[in-house]
Each structure stands twice: as C-alpha cells, then as structure tokens.
Amino acid sequence: MTRSPFNQQFSRRNLLRGGMLLGGGVVLGAGASACATPTGTPGPTTVSLALNRSLVSLDNKLNQFDAALTVQRGVRQALTEIDANLKPQLVLADRFDLVEPTRWFVHLRQGAVYSDGSPVQVQDVATAIRMYSEVDGSFVGGFFPEWPTVEQMDDTSFSLLTTKPVPVLDYLMSNILITPAADNKPEELQTGLGSGPYVVTSSDRGTGNYTLERNTKYWGPAPNIETVRVRFVPEESSRVVTLRSGEVDVIDSITPDAADQLEGLSNVVVDRVDGVRLNQLFYNFRKPADHPLADARVRRALTYAINGPALIDQVMQGSATASKGVIPAILDGAIETGEYTYDPARARGELDALGISDLELKIIWESGEFAADTDIMESVVQMFSAIGVRTTLQQFEPGGDIMQWRQGKAGDWDILGNGFPSPTGLAITIMQGMYAGTPEKEQTRDTYHGYMFPEIAAAIARASEEVDETRRTQLLADAQRQIWDTVPCLWSFVPKSVMARRERIQDVTLRPTNSYNLSAATLVS
User: Fold this and answer.
1) Solute-binding protein family domain spans which residues (predicted)?
2) Do 404 and 62 meet the contact criterion of CB atoms below 8 Å apart?
3) Closest by alpha carbon to 437, among 140, 142, 135?
4) Nearest alpha carbon to residue 84 among 523, 520, 522
C-alpha cells in the first residue's frame, strides 16, 4: 500500500519549496490511509507513547527498529542487552563467559520467570535460536556469522557452541528475545509469554495500539510506571499536537522542525544522542548484468548529483552527520573510507562518457523510515532532474508489503530509502547484516538487496572469527575500504536519535539505539 508524500505539511517543506532543492512534480504510487490519534490524557500512573512507525509485533524476528526496542524489551527479554555506552549487560543470564574460542558458558539468572510464574529454561533459549534461524527474511539473522547451538549442562547452565569463533556472541545474543519453547514459532509472535517488566493486556496489530501493565510476577525490580499505552501516530504534526496537549508523553524520531516547535516549551524536554543507524539510499544489486546500475561506474556517477550538505543543513537542519564511510563512525571498529561529493556537472559528464542517457529510476521507501523522509526524497528527485535523470517515487505505508519488494519478490525498483542499525554498537554487526551476502543467503532472499561480493563476504567472515581485537580491527578496516569501492549507496547519512517527552516522565536515558529502559522511567506529578 502506498500514499502520496504530499499529505504531510511541515514548515521546512515550505522553506525548501522556495529554494534550490525543490521544483517540479513527482510521479507517485497511489493509495492512502489514515490512523486515529490517541485521545484522552494519561492518568497519574500511566505513560502514553506515540510511535512514528506501526509496532506490528512485540517479537523482533522481522521487526526491530528504534523505538520498537523500548516496547519489545519491556515485554520480552534476552540473555543480555546493550546499554547506553554500547556495552553488553547481563539480563536473563548472570554468567556469559568465553571459555574456549568456540564455546561460551552461560548460566541463567536465579529466579528469572515469565509473567505466569514459570521459570525461564535452557530449552527456551535453544528453541529461540532455532526459531530465529528458521524465519523467512530474518532481520536479526543477518547479524550472525553462524547460529550457535545449545549444549545443556543442568537446569540452569549450558554452553553456546559455534564451529568457528564468534568473539562477540555476548553482544549478538542481546537480539534473541526468549519465549517459552512451546509457544515459539519461526515467525513474529503476536501472543505468548515474556519475562519482562510488563505484560500486554490489549493489542491491535492493525492499528499498532497496545496497552502494557506492570508484571506483578516480574523477577527484577518492579517498574516505576504502572501502565504504558502505545499508539501509532504516523503524521508528525499530529504527534507534536498530542504531546503539546498532554495526550501523549513521548514521541520519537522527530524532525528538526518538530524539535524547534517543542524545544522552548516549559513542560517538554528534547533529548538527543549520536545514533548507530546508517540511513541510506541503497542501490538494488539484483539488477541484470546489462542494467546501468550493475556498473559501479554508473552508481558512482549518480552520487555526484546529490547535494548532501544542502540536505543535511536545509532539510535536516544539522540533525544528521554526512557519512564518511560505509557504517556510522560511532561504531566500534568503524573507519573513514571517503566522502560523498556534490558535482552535478561531473555526474552528467561521466554518465555521457559511459553512454548512459534517458535513464529512469524508481525510488521506494517506507513512511517513517527516517525523519524528513518525504522532503529528502522530493529533493533527490529534483537533483536527479538537474542531470537529466527521471525519477519515480513510491512510498509504502508501515506494515505494508515493502518487505516483498525489498526481497525482490514483488515489483522492481532501483534505489531504496532505508535505515540499518547496529543494535550491538559494533562495526562487525552492521557489516555482517548489510555487506556479507552470499549465494546461499540470496536463495532465501536474506542478502541485503542482493549485495553479494565473495571477497568482501570472506573478509567480513575472517573478521568475525578473529579473537584478537587488534587483528579484527585491521580486517574490518580492510573490508570497509573494499565495500566503499563497490559504491553501495547513492548517498548515506547518520542521524542523531531525537526524542521529545513531557517533563512528567523522567529518568529516561536515550541510548544511541534510539531506545531506552522503560522500566527505569519514573513519573512525577
């Protein structure tokens, strides 16, 4: 399902229409949808969250983005989690030790139980790993160089075994949410028990609305907030209005315009932190050999058409950083590999030299993929027009069928507006997910849009197996340089994580993953 991006109205849009970035019309996919905003102010023990993307599941096998982490981990937990300093902390495990290059010892935390009081068991961990490995199109699966197997020792102790070393497995296992084995399936779960501080008391997957209540059987410290209401409010203007009126307490992933409107209000706080998400206009690497985009020289020529500094300064008002590499610089192991250069004359000249004329490209993206997404896409259309490249935009609604398009199972496209995080804070994780594609992964459409370069996949594999940190860093640096030379993106940037909240909700530490620990938040009158 698609809708016109012209439905949204922001002050930044009006500024840009008078400037150099925007101009003529855009061809768009058809269709429209709307979503009701939340009504009624939260009670004294209730917090209301308005998300910019629909939370279709409280499981994360296919769906793990930004603020969804906050809610998902309020209900289901993993053996570990990544904290605000991007370091792993123990959750359902109280021991997680590398004892041999291919063996980790894990001990389940005493007293860890699900919301019905039943204990978290070793078999639940083994089943969870298997379910994540079997789901079609797994988001999490791309992070793992291989899936570990469980060797049980006793009721609470087990080993995680791999055929080759996976020295960051304690980071990676933070992505595997644990569910009772009997309830788990190789799909995103809509029901079932969790071990987190909250339980789901009502849910509507179609609207993205959920109600969470304090888990009275929670094994850890009781959460401070009794009730959490989660709402999907796609239009940013509506989210800003509901925050200002007190109908909601927290809104996420806001644009600079929204931050400007809210920054000066006495009862609102705007939180910012450098993010771990790479936002990109990624090329479709499933094109046939005779297609222009199959040629790295064409892909590189097109990059010169994009005025990245103007997009960051004028569209995003400096709320993002221009990429100087193929992953965010904040990640452990990231290096600078190059910069995107704006030179439209060079873009046209190189395309002419390659015999490329009458090029028409289709750009797709899902609404809410990143802040100011529609403004950015419309600007790109005009930048392409300036070098004689025609462009069609197709915008998908959250929860629509863009996944089928991304996997090459639906319609054709040329460039995808997307965001890819490293929820571990490690360079190797995002590189494994985006750039380590193999023919075996492509058979199940689990490569990142067909990106497959055997020598790069092999380099990432060597890095993922290297126990020596210094040597691993060197291997990662070499792989990043190779990736940059393949020109995977038309343009990319790293946004700051930005969240606005009413002052009544405090003790919220926004993490680089654009999430926070919901159970640690407090309410003040």
Assistant:
1) 90-437
2) no
3) 142
4) 520
Distance CA 13, CA 191 (A): 41
Classified as helix, coil or strand, 208 is coil
Q: Cα–Cα distance between 166 and 148 in angstroms, integer?
A: 9
- Residues 306, 309, 314, 319: is their CA dihedral positive or negative? positive
Distance of CA 244 to the CA centre of its chain: 27
Find out whether 132 and 176 touch, Cβ atoms under 8 Å. Answer: yes
d(CA 432, CA 459): 10
Spell out the per-residue pLDDT of the chain, length 525, in tens.
333 332 333 334 433 433 434 333 333 433 333 333 345 677 789 999 999 888 888 888 886 666 788 999 999 999 999 999 999 999 999 999 999 999 999 999 999 999 999 999 999 999 999 999 998 877 788 889 899 999 999 999 999 999 999 999 999 999 999 999 999 999 888 888 999 999 999 998 888 899 999 999 999 999 999 999 999 998 889 999 999 999 999 998 888 778 888 988 989 999 988 889 999 999 999 999 999 999 999 999 999 999 999 999 999 888 899 999 999 999 999 999 999 999 999 999 999 999 999 999 999 999 888 878 999 999 999 999 999 999 999 999 876 788 889 988 889 999 999 999 888 999 999 999 999 999 998 998 889 999 999 999 999 999 999 999 999 999 999 999 999 999 999 999 999 888 999 999 999 999 998 899 999 999 997
3-state secondary structure 143-186: HCCCCCEEEECCCCEEEEECCCCCCCHHHHHHHCCECCHHHCCC
DSSP 213-276: EE-TT-SSSPPS-SEEEEEE---HHHHHHHHHHTS-SEEES--HHHHHHHHT-TTEEEEEEE--
Q: N- to C-terminal Cα distance for the chain?
A: 42
CA separation for the pair 492, 340 (Å, rounded): 8
Helices 256-263/236-245 angle, 10° precision? 20
Tokens standing for 462?
A: 């060597």
| Separation between Cα atoms, residue 214 and residue 326, nearest integer Å | 41
Taking the complete model, does pTM exceed 0.85, yes or no? Answer: no
Both tokens assigned to 508: 């919220």
Is the CA virtual torsion 302, 364, 279, 459 positive or negative? Answer: negative
The span from the CA of 364 to the CA of 284, in Å, is 11
- DSSP label at residue 6: G
Distance (Å, whole) CA 165 – CA 459:
15
Q: Are 521 and 330 in contact (CB under 8 A)?
A: no
Contact between 57 and 51 under an 8 Å Cβ cutoff? The reply is no
Triad 304, 310, 314: Cα angle to 5°: 160
Tokens standing for residue 108: 């389940």
Name residues whose C-beta falls within 8 Å of residue 519's C-beta, 6 or more positions apart in sequence: 74, 196, 197, 198, 220, 221, 223, 224, 225
